[in-house]
Amino acid sequence: MRLTLFTLAVAITFGTAVQAQQATAPSSRTRLTVERTVEEGVDLLLVTAVDGGGQPLEGVVIGAYVKRLFGELVIGRETTFDDGTAYIALPKDLPPSKSGRLSILVRVIQPQDRAGTQTQIEVAGVPLAGADEPPFPHRALWASHSPFLLTTTVTVLLGGVWLTYAFVLYQVRCIRKGI
User: Fold this and answer.
1) Do residue 32 and residue 81 come from a single domain?
2) Centroid of chain to Cα 26
3) Is residue 91 reached through a cis peptide bond, with omega within 30 degrees of 0 on the bond before it?
4) C-alpha–C-alpha distance, residues 42 and 27, integer Å
């Protein structure tokens, strides 16, 4: 009850009507269902768009996106047929996440009164060949078997620096003794 009184108090304070906000919501809801299918060797998303009464929606523009680190990558955009279905091809060279899954977001783009309706599915991705192997063997000083020439080069350079420090200290000692 407190939330309702608070909403009413805000509405009176700012001169807005609470019922006006509820009236702007669309009266019919759009539902999207997504399935992954394979037809003629092509990996597809079968998207079905229906209204609140279960009737198929024709001519609705559907967009499919893959969630990535810095946003959404567009993978397809199709218009629904008279039975409310649309087929969107999945690219074969799309690398999955570390868990091996692709997070696909399907959204209604047009018409504007139904835009924004979306659903999300997780599908198994196709791992790229050689993705687990590094492009070259791990070569570093901190590796378990560091390369001999790399270790020798670093040792000689650091040894030269420390020998220079030792020579300077020896010269300072000779100056103090007066040799």
Assistant:
1) yes
2) 30
3) no
4) 37
pTM higher than the cut 0.70: no
According to the model, what pLDDT value does residue 166 have? 97
Structural domain boundaries enclosing 32:
28-124
Has residue 11 been placed in a domain? no
Candidates 92, 112, 109; CA nearest to 44 is 92
Q: Which of 131, 21, 111, 124 is nearest to 57 (CA)?
A: 111
Number of domains present in the structure of the chain = 2
Tokens of 9: 């108090």
CATH of the domain at 46: 2.60.40.1940
pLDDT confidence band for 168 (50 / 70 / 90): very high
What is the per-residue pLDDT across 42-80, written as a single tens digit (0 to 9) for each?
Answer: 888 888 888 888 888 888 899 989 888 888 889 889 898
The residue with tokens 């198929």 is 56
Contact yes or no for 54/35 (Cβ under 8 A): no
Show contacts of 124-128: CB within 8 Å, 24+ apart: 124/96, 124/100, 125/94, 125/95, 125/96, 125/97, 125/100, 125/101, 126/92, 126/94, 126/96, 127/95, 127/96, 127/100, 128/93, 128/95
